[in-house]
Amino acid sequence: MQNGNSAMTELSNGIIVTDLHAHDDNLSLSQRGYSIRHIETWHGQDNQTFIHWDAPEFTDVDLPY
After folding, report:
1. For the whole model, what pTM was predicted?
2. Please, what is the Cα angle at 36 between 51 and 9, to 5 degrees?
3. How much is the pLDDT for 8?
4. 61 lies in a domain?
C-alpha cells in the first residue's frame, strides 16, 4: 500500500475498494483480472475518491479437472 492512501478493503460480497491514488494496488488488481464496478467520490473534508472492483469471473478453463 502506498503512503498516504486509505487501506484496501474487501467487502463480504467479493468487491474490493481502493483509493483512487493507490496506483500499485490498482495495477495489481487490474493485472489479476479484477474489473472496475464504479468510482465514487465522497465530498467532505477530504474529497476522497474510491474505486470499487469486481472479482474476476471464473470459467471452465480456470478450473482443474
Report:
1. 0.72
2. 45
3. 81
4. no
